[in-house]
Specification:
Layout lengths: L2 E5 L1 H6 L15 E5 L6 E5 L9 E5 L2 E2 L18 E8 L3 H4 L6 E7 L7 E9 L3 E11 L3 E12 L8 E15 L2 E15 L15 E16 L4 E15 L6 E15 L5 E16 L8 E17 L2 E12 L3 E15 L2 E12 L3 H6 L16 E13 L7 E10 L9 E7 L7 E2 L4 E2 L10 E6 L16
Parallel strand pairs: 4-7
Antiparallel strand pairs: 1-6, 2-3, 4-5, 6-7, 8-9, 9-10, 10-11, 11-12, 12-13, 13-14, 14-15, 15-16, 16-17, 17-18, 18-19, 19-20, 20-21, 21-22, 22-23, 23-26, 24-25
Keywords: Cell outer membrane, Membrane, Receptor, Signal, TonB box, Transmembrane, Transmembrane beta strand, Transport
Membrane topology: Multi-pass membrane protein
Subcellular location: Cell outer membrane
């Protein structure tokens, strides 16, 4: 019952997006905040984001955020190895765990598809902006492997805005037997971005700031099928080092070690039961000097289950996640939903979900705020958000049809325990199917005679907004 959009590999290759998060800019209900062409990209989904910290970001189902600040280094996610991007709107922590408040972004990496799978892309533009993408791989009967590399350079259009980034990826798999397949993914990114002067800075200020990010990830997964259930077992490790210029003085390292078991089984006709467990150890070190290196760590355990049953034109589902963090305590995240398809071209979707987010280590230990009720102690409770879509209606045609969604969200934080409700309405219209060109996924010249628009009218902390977005179904 979730609102899901998928950006395919073909759409990504036709786009001008440089990173995976840039490619989301034209999806309805998604708002992108960028610090520059090669800078940080923060994402809000349906009004929730908080500089990207309230949106879960996954790569092949593996969490991608750094453990100290619980944020994603978005320019470390170029498109050189991406097969598709899946976007889920609204809280869905029952399936995806912490940070799935505004929604979920799952980046699926590419596998080699041919015995000789080669590609290359080179571009050059103004301000000495240049890039190179290379990939080489092979697929044999039981083995596949692909190596990809991305290089991006720019002198920047402002003083002190240059960029230099390098990304290397490897994905390989081996089918051990018809019932067992192993898959390995490795990644390493290093990049230096200089920070130009802001418009609010004094005219006499000379910008000299820069930051360097090194991020890496490893994961090994096994997909299996037995008589009782099918599923995946995944082991992963994320690691990184962040160094800012001496004027800022920040230098840190962090890592996340985790394991996930995800099982699914069909109990009866039209039924799908999913269960799983995930464990994580998150840690980081602030390198103040050679003699001062404070470190912090935390452990998390999640148990989750969801059952879905199809009964003719009606599909109902319910799920629950129990999450335990040794710092912030325990959280229950339920979900329930229903999809009604009275006709092949019409789908009605109803759902109620809860999302939560554990406060990151910078909030609980490094720079802890004070709770007004307990001035001497930081508040370490989890953030939560409840989303109650009153009605989500989609009319599906062979091309583009109208779709709409009405939903309400109620965010709650430890700092401001009182809830503030937000009501939103999204309306999607396309007057005729002839104005859409399926071969290019863009509107034809006949679009001038069409009335295609999106309207978002809402109340969010007493602020309303009107947004025009591009005609992509799936709100």
């Amino acid at each position: 019952a979730a609102a899901v959009s998928v950006i395919t590999g073909e759409e990504l290759r036709r786009s001008l997006a440089r990173t995976a998060t840039d490619a989301l800019a034209f999806l309805p209900g998604v708002f992108i905040h960028r610090t520059g062409q090669f800078g940080r990209t923060d994402i809000d989904i349906r009004g929730l984001g908080a500089r990207g910290t309230q949106v879960a970001v996954l790569v092949d189902g593996r969490p991608e955020k750094m453990s100290l600040f619980s944020c994603t280094i978005t320019h470390s996610l170029p498109l050189n190895n991406v097969e598709r991007i899946e976007l889920v709107r609204g809280p869905l922590s029952a399936l995806y765990g912490s940070d799935a408040l505004g929604g979920v972004i799952n980046i699926i990496t590419r596998q080699a598809q041919k015995p000789l799978d080669l590609s290359a892309r080179l571009y050059y533009g103004s301000f000495n902006t240049a890039g190179l993408r290379l990939s080489a791989g092979t697929r044999q009967q039981r083995f596949h492997g692909l190596v990809s590399f991305d290089k991006a350079l720019s002198a920047g259009h402002l003083p002190n805005s240059q960029y230099n980034g390098n990304d290397l990826n490897l994905r390989a798999g081996w089918q051990v037997s018809p019932a067992l397949e192993l898959d390995f993914t490795g990644k390493y990114f290093t990049g230096v971005k200089h920070e130009p002067k802001r418009t609010t800075d004094p005219e006499t200020l000379v910008a000299t700031g820069w930051n360097r990010y090194d991020r890496g990830g490893l994961d090994l997964s096994a997909g299996f099928r037995t008589g009782l259930a099918s599923g995946t077992v995944k082991l992963y490790r994320l690691f990184g080092e962040h160094i800012f210029d001496p004027g800022d003085g920040w230098h840190s390292t962090d890592y996340t070690n985790g394991g996930l078991v995800h099982l699914h089984r069909q109990l009866t006709a039209g039924n799908l039961l999913q269960t799983g467990v995930e464990v994580r150890n998150l840690a980081g070190t602030w390198i103040r000097s050679d003699t001062s290196r404070p470190s912090w760590s935390r452990n998390q355990l999640d148990l989750f289950a969801q059952d879905e049953q199809r009964l003719g034109p009606v599909t109902v589902n319910a799920g629950l996640r129990f999450a335990r963090d040794n710092i912030s305590g325990s959280v229950l995240a339920p979900k329930a939903g229903m999809v009604i398809s009275p006709l092949n071209a019409i789908r009605l979707r109803l759902s109620v979900n809860r999302g939560f987010r554990y406060p990151p280590l910078n909030y609980t230990h490094i720079f802890p705020p004070s709770n007004p009720a307990l001035p001497s102690a930081p508040d370490k409770k989890s953030f939560s958000s409840v989303s109650s879509p009153i009605l989500a209606c989609s009319v599906l045609t062979s091309t583009v049809g109208p779709a709409g969604s009405v939903f309400a969200s109620s965010p709650k934080t430890p700092v401001a325990p009182s809830r503030s409700w937000s009501f939103h309405c999204l309306i999607w219209l396309a007057c005729t199917s002839n104005c859409w060109d399926n071969s290019t996924s863009v509107c034809s010249p006949r679009m001038a005679a069409c009335a295609t628009f999106a309207l978002k009218a809402g109340l969010w902390f007493r602020r309303g907004c009107l947004v025009i977005v591009s005609p992509v179904p799936g709100i």
